[in-house]
Automatic annotation (TrEMBL):
<feature type="domain" description="Peptidase M1 membrane alanine aminopeptidase">
    <location>
        <begin position="207"/>
        <end position="420"/>
    </location>
</feature>
<keyword id="KW-0645">Protease</keyword>
<dbReference type="GO" id="GO:0016020">
    <property type="term" value="C:membrane"/>
</dbReference>
<dbReference type="GO" id="GO:0070006">
    <property type="term" value="F:metalloaminopeptidase activity"/>
</dbReference>
<keyword id="KW-0862">Zinc</keyword>
<dbReference type="GO" id="GO:0016285">
    <property type="term" value="F:alanyl aminopeptidase activity"/>
</dbReference>
<keyword id="KW-0479">Metal-binding</keyword>
<dbReference type="GO" id="GO:0005737">
    <property type="term" value="C:cytoplasm"/>
</dbReference>
<dbReference type="InterPro" id="IPR024571">
    <property type="entry name" value="ERAP1-like_C_dom"/>
</dbReference>
<dbReference type="InterPro" id="IPR001930">
    <property type="entry name" value="Peptidase_M1"/>
</dbReference>
<feature type="domain" description="ERAP1-like C-terminal">
    <location>
        <begin position="508"/>
        <end position="787"/>
    </location>
</feature>
<dbReference type="InterPro" id="IPR042097">
    <property type="entry name" value="Aminopeptidase_N-like_N_sf"/>
</dbReference>
<dbReference type="Pfam" id="PF11838">
    <property type="entry name" value="ERAP1_C"/>
</dbReference>
<protein>
    <recommendedName>
        <fullName>Aminopeptidase N</fullName>
        <ecNumber>3.4.11.2</ecNumber>
    </recommendedName>
</protein>
<dbReference type="Pfam" id="PF01433">
    <property type="entry name" value="Peptidase_M1"/>
</dbReference>
<keyword id="KW-0378">Hydrolase</keyword>
<dbReference type="GO" id="GO:0043171">
    <property type="term" value="P:peptide catabolic process"/>
</dbReference>
Length: 800
């Protein structure tokens, strides 16, 4: 059941939650036959209208006893979600004793068990899952002191938010299990025992990044970190990248890379660390009143995380932001569910969860980056310091932040914020030929775009450049240029727009890839080619050729990874099925060539290995890699991908058993599920689909792993009928799963690249059904937008 904004407002008019004391009996948590645990909550609640009633949030298995001010409530009014209280006094003690269920979907109190490793628990309260493990008033403006008394099996380590400061319920956590823990001063790192080697291997890097960013934030914001020790727990089966629980951040354990990782992967982890640290102020210390101000959390954490990590650690992140985060956000902003960055209209918690998307993160961050450049760092950060210090340990809204900036005396702030924060959809910025002009097409309101425009010769040297602010519909560009030159309107990759460059004289967009550009404009170019592919403005075959030519000489590993990924997308989902084998073979040949020329210890070698594994149809090549016929043996993750590729090509699925014997870890078990579902046999696919649509026992991770093996781009004829069935059956999975587990399993199983009319019709039928759960509908609508774009790409440019 979802909480509406008006209900939250009404409840806060009636009561204030002062403190929450929780007793948890987890003493049998390591016995998997016992699915539940005891939870007793003691809530201190002030009532502003004595005599009035309210409700608490409680999603328990069973309710045993409710006492209000010591008096037993004979027949508690509890519907499985809400516990209604009546006739409250001015000050109340409410005691609730209940039995809760361990979860397997990554929300509430999640239990993970791995043979030979042990049982581990972590609590994920976000977004509205706190009542799945204790009784509370679950809304972000009810910040209260929390304390926990936990009974756990002998030898377990139990950690959580170790603070007496008030916390919103969505930020309350607990982790328990036989963790490995490494501490350094106030910092701590925890992981499963099975990842002990990886944790020790990476601890120095993790501490260094954390210390550097923590010091940078304290300096920048001028308020010390407020929540005691700072633990980072690498947890199994975690749905999100990480969760910013004050003083006890939970991260997905895949960040402790098994085997080899690229510098870009370590940089991405450093960026996540910096992001969660930013939340300790933006979200944790000052919390939004309601979810419609989600951007006050995520846009700031995303912007500051990228900036602080780039400026204070060895991991620069802006290229990756342009290549992965901006492309994600731009797709969302052009999609059917676009919304403004601020004031996203979260009328209830279900709608709020749906808005944790590329707009709240990437677009918000890009807009803040533009804002900081527009008003200057000094005013930008002075406003933030004022805002955080004024509302520390409380709540605030957009209006409070705007007031803090206004107090800095910045002119034109309201118009700027109005144009960027309250309107949705990206503008299109394009360069028009003879005479050169910038054209802005988009929102009717003027929107200032600060752009760095460059003219590059066909050899890549700079012919001319200038800074321009495009807010009108046409902006003249006084720049020297010759036929064949490339005019790139966002050469420093800081804009938020669908960017259309120009090759003077009218050459095709793919020819721009031939220009030899410096790193930043080259990254910007890759980003806009991604955008062009999604719009069917460029033929996937021609684009793939250009990308492979770029990849062959690309010195930067982050850009190489992006070029290879985009080339893979061109060869698969964006191309019609009949041309996929030829395009896949071109990619495999190019990747093998890269592999032969790459230095074995470098990132290029690892990226080429991965690209070969993902694209080759030569089983002897895959067997050779698995047998170690390569200067650098495959790591466990790459081995599993090679096994999956072999099974998908029709090799005996007993390969999976052999690999599991070699790698029986939790990660290995999940890879085995994916590999088995990849076999090109109708019976296998059907059984896998059956589990995705009907298995209520499997964890969200297990379902996603199975789903990831079904709709493979090289098995079109086999999986096309199953895509129709998937659309017919997916809506009822909202009865089996909830929250992020539901979103994640729908997303993991989405039949990308299966985009013929019959499948599109099946999708349309499901989307037209009014009974479809809003969470499923939102995820389907986003995926459907991709499918329609793919079908257009097939028709418009499939032949070339
Ligand atoms: Zn965040």
């Amino acid at each position: 059941m979802t909480l509406r904004h008006d209900e939250a407002l009404e409840r806060s008019r009636t009561i204030t939650l002062r403190s929450v004391q929780v007793e948890l009996d987890l003493s049998s948590a390591d016995n998997l036959d016992i699915p539940t645990f005891g939870s007793r909550s003691r809530l201190e609640i002030d009532c502003h209208e004595p005599g009035a009633g309210t409700f608490l949030d409680l999603k328990a298995e069973s309710l045993h006893e409710v006492r209000v001010n010591g008096v037993l409530v004979e027949q508690p009014d509890w519907d499985g979600n809400r516990l209604r209280l009546s006739d409250l006094a001015e000050h109340n003690i409410v005691e609730v004793t209940a039995t809760m269920r361990f979860s397997s979907d990554g929300e509430g109190l999640h239990r993970h068990h791995a043979a030979g490793d042990g049982t581990y628990l972590y609590a994920m309260s976000f977004l509205d899952a706190a009542p799945r493990w204790f009784c509370t008033v679950d809304q972000p403006d009810q910040k209260a002191r929390h304390s926990f008394d936990v009974q756990a099996p002998d030898g377990w380590i139990v950690r959580g938010n170790d603070t007496d400061k008030p916390l919103a319920s969505y930020l309350v956590t607990l982790v328990a299990g036989p963790w490995v823990e490494i501490t350094r001063g106030r910092l701590g790192l925890l992981a499963r025992r099975g990842l002990s080697d990886e944790l020790h291997r990476d601890a120095e890097d993790l501490f260094e990044v954390t210390n550097a960013c923590l010091a940078a934030y304290e300096d920048l914001i001028g308020i010390p970190y407020a929540f005691g020790d700072y633990l980072q727990v690498f947890a199994p089966d975690f749905n999100a990248g990480a969760m910013e629980n004050p003083g006890c951040v939970v991260l997905r354990e895949q960040f402790l890379h098994r085997g080899q990782a690229t510098q870009a992967q370590r940089a991405s982890r450093a960026g996540t660390i910096a992001h969660e640290l930013a939340h300790q102020w933006f979200g944790d210390l000052v919390t939004m009143r309601w979810w419609d101000d989600l951007w006050l959390n995520e846009s700031f954490a995303e912007y500051l995380g990228h900036r602080i990590c780039t400026e204070h650690t060895q991991y620069p992140l802006w290229a990756d932001f342009g290549l992965r985060r901006k492309t994600w956000g731009l797709a969302a902003d052009k999609g059917p569910n676009t919304h403004p960055v601020a004031g996203n209209g979260a009328e209830d918690t279900t709608a709020a969860l749906a808005n944790f998307d590329g707009i709240s993160y990437a677009k918000g961050a890009a807009v803040l980056r533009q804002l900081a450049a527009w008003m200057g760092d000094q005013a930008f950060f002075a406003g933030l310091r004022h805002h955080i210090s004024t509302h520390a340990h409380g709540n605030a809204s957009r209006a409070d932040l705007v007031d803090a900036w206004r107090a800095q005396g910045v002119d034109g702030l309201d118009n700027w914020l109005d144009a960027w924060l309250t309107t949705s959809g990206p503008d299109r910025i394009q360069v028009l030929d003879g005479p050169l002009r910038l054209e802005r097409v988009g929102t009717p309101k003027p929107r200032p775009h600060a752009l760095h425009v460059e003219v590059r010769t066909p050899q890549g040297s700079l012919r001319d450049e200038r800074r321009a602010v495009a807010h009108d519909d046409l902006t003249p560009l006084d720049l020297r240029h010759e036929p064949g030159d490339l005019v790139l309107p966002d050469a420093d990759d800081t804009a938020w727009a669908s960017i259309r460059p120009l090759v003077v004289g009218g050459a095709d967009l793919t020819s721009v890839a031939a220009h030899r550009l410096p790193t930043t404009p080259r990254a910007a170019l890759l980003g806009l080619l991604h955008d062009a592919l999604r719009d069917a403005r460029v033929a996937p075959g021609a684009l793939q050729d250009q990308l492979l030519a770029m990849a062959a000489v690309e010195p930067d590993a982050t850009l190489l990874a992006a070029a290879l990924d985009l080339a893979h997308a061109c060869a698969t989902v964006w191309s019609p099925p009949d041309v996929r084998p030829a395009r896949g073979a071109r990619l495999a040949d190019a990747a093998l060539h890269l592999l032969e020329g790459a230095e074995p210890k470098g990132d290029h070698h690892l990226l080429a290995q991965r690209a070969v594994i993902a694209s080759t149809t030569h089983t002897d090549v895959l067997h050779g890699l698995l047998a170690g016929e390569t200067p650098r043996p495959l790591g466990p993750e790459e081995r599993w991908r090679a096994i999956q590729s072999l099974v998908a090509l029709g090799e005996d699925a007993r390969l999976v058993d052999d690999e599991l014997a070699r790698d029986p870890s939790s990660s290995g078990q999940l890879h085995a599920l994916t590999a088995r579902a990849s076999a090109p046999a109708s019976s296998v696919k059907r059984a896998a689909l059956d589990r995705v649509l009907h298995d209520a026992q499997a964890s969200a991770y297990q379902v996603s792993a199975i789903a990831a093996g079904i709709f493979l781009p090289g098995q079109y004829a086999l999986v096309q009928p199953l895509a129709v069935e998937w659309f017919a059956g997916i809506s009822q999975t909202s009865r089996l799963r909830q929250g992020w587990g539901l979103t994640g399993t729908v997303r993991a199983g989405f039949p990308h690249g299966v985009a013929d009319e019959q499948v599109l019709d099946a999708a349309r039928r499901t989307l037209a059904d009014p009974e479809v759960h809003p969470t499923v509908r939102r995820t389907l609508a986003d995926g459907f937008d991709d499918l329609v774009r793919q079908s257009v790409s097939w028709k418009v440019c499939g032949a070339s």
